[in-house]
Amino acid sequence: FIVVITVGFLASKYSRRGSVSGFFLASRNMHWLPVGASLFSSNIGSEHLIGLAGSGAASGVAIATYEMNAIFILMLLGWFFVPVYMSSGIYTMPEYLRLRFGGQRIRTFLSILTLLLYIFTKISIDL
User: Fold this and answer.
1) What letter would DSSP give residue 37?
2) 26 and which of 30, 45, 85, 125 could share a cystine (Cβ 3.0–4.6 Å)?
3) What is the DSSP letter of 81?
């Protein structure tokens, strides 16, 4: 625990977070391994370790097809959206929505929808 806190404080001290690019893209100086590990670890939680294991034991390997299909869907979305983001010069989905549709209401709607979906999917999987 102490090591994780120390690494977090050191990373925040020496990082350049003065711009959107510096904050979201680590000033484009980060190696691919920490980025991949961060994406992987942010996706793994109690629903994978307990919920999906229990569902797999109850219903067989059919539950694994959901996770296997997610690999291909995420790659497809990456191939589609990354060029759009790069050509627009934006870094986040709310920035894209503001650029595409204008205004603040769509960004607020996305925030509320994301929170609700996150809460309900975590609750449903853990049950």
Assistant:
1) H
2) 30
3) H
User: What is the number of other CB atoms lying within 10 angstroms of the CB of residue 63?
Assistant: 16
- Report the amino acid identity of residue 74: L
Specify whether the CB–CB gap between 96 and 84 falls below 8 A. yes
- Of 113, 117, 116, 81, nearest to 100 (Cα)? 81
CA atoms within 13 A on the CB side of 23: 7
Question: Angle formed by the axes of helices 93-101 and 105-126, to 10°?
Answer: 140
**pLDDT, tens digit, for every residue of 64-113?**
787 788 888 888 888 888 888 888 888 778 888 888 888 888 888 888 99
- Record the tokens describing residue 20, joined without a space: 């959107």
Alpha carbons 46 and 49: distance in angstroms, whole number: 5
